[in-house]
Amino acid sequence: MNLPTLILAAFAALTIATPSPQELGIQPHSSVPPAVHLSDLKAAGSGCPPNTLDLSLHGSQVSLSFADFFATAGTSKPSDKRRFCQVSFKVKYSPGWTLSIATSEVKGFIGISSGPTAKYTLQGPNLSHEFNHISSVSANVWSPCGEEVIINIKTDIRLIGKGNGVIGVESQSNKFLNSVNLDWKEC
After folding, report:
1. Does residue 8 have a pLDDT over 60?
2. What is the DSSP string of 34-66?
């Protein structure tokens, strides 16, 4: 069966100024279909070894929680400077509904010396320390009415240059979090 695919992947660095969803003009998602089910989680990459990734659904927010997702520079091997994870999963929902990705949110920690720069692959500019970054999607792409979709998310972090640094899990949850907020409407 040919399933529609929504792809969320853009390259950029993070920024220290992180607006709230309300500052971005994003309103809470109040309409959600009566039945939404996530299935067929697949993950591959250096940042998501087996049994280190959780997928959850809370209302209109789909969250990926990475337990072993960090990149280091300084005393580490060159290959430790980058981690990535390609994730895909199916979203099934009630007939008569359509979905679109509204925003993406990442939470983690960055600690770097004066040498390297850190980059996180998603949409947004540079950041340091614990961060919570929200990016809105510039143009909504709606799924076909009532059809199951596959969502693909590529998460990529890297340290560039010489010096010491780390980017990855935050101290409070001990996880690196990547969430997408879905917009829903009846069709």
Report:
1. no
2. S-EEEEEEEEESTT--TT-EEEEEETTEEEEEE
Q: Which residues in the chain belong to E strands, given as ranges?
A: 5-8, 36-44, 53-58, 61-66, 71-73, 82-93, 97-112, 117-121, 129-136, 149-160, 165-168, 176-186
Nearest to 53 by CA among 158, 167, 136, 155: 155
Single out the residue of 41, 36, 79 nearest to residue 60, CA to CA.
Answer: 36
8-state DSSP, 145: T
Structural domain tally of the chain?
1
Sign of the CA dihedral with 28 first, then 33, 37, and 40 last = negative
Q: What is the C-alpha separation between 62 and 136, in angstroms, rounded?
A: 15
8-state DSSP, 33: -
Give per-residue pLDDT as tens, 20-74: 344 444 444 458 888 999 999 999 999 889 998 999 998 889 988 888 887 787 7
Tokens for 53, please give them: 């990734």
Supply the range of the domain harboring residue 174.
5-186
For residue range 130-155, what is the model confidence (pLDDT) as tens digits?
455 556 666 778 899 988 999 998 88
